[in-house]
Design a protein that fits this description.
- The chain has 4 helices and no strands.
- It has a domain of 54 residues.
- The protein is mainly alpha-helical.
């Protein structure tokens, strides 16, 4: 199950990266005004921005959900525990050598 969620997570991350790189910045319309020709895309001038924005939001939501799922799954794994708990357990199971008590000093009469 964790492998499936991880694969979906990686695909969502790649989708977010790709869609963000495809989108135009706010200053991209100025370049189109001087003959760049990028404003006449497949979806129209504002249609591509709307579609890409919604698709990006969908991929981000999937990425967020899979991130939380993977964090939950790794925290509740049966074969592993907390690093802090492991350190405390190792510290308490160590045997410390018992040092002999210091001999009592004899009182010297004055």
């Amino acid at each position: 199950m964790e492998t499936l969620v991880l694969i979906v997570h990686i695909c969502a991350a790649a989708g977010v990266i790709g869609l963000v790189l495809l989108q135009h910045g706010k200053g991209a319309d100025m370049g189109a005004a001087f003959g760049s020709g990028t404003s006449g895309s497949l979806f129209g001038a504002s249609g591509s921005a709307n579609f890409l924005s919604r698709a990006t939001a969908m991929f981000v939501a999937v990425f967020f959900a899979t991130s939380l799922t993977l964090a939950y799954m790794s925290g509740h794994r049966a074969d592993s525990g907390s690093v802090v708990k492991a350190a405390v357990k190792a510290q308490t199971t160590e045997t410390t050598p018992v040092q002999p008590a210091a001999p009592e000093s004899k009182k010297v009469p004055q």
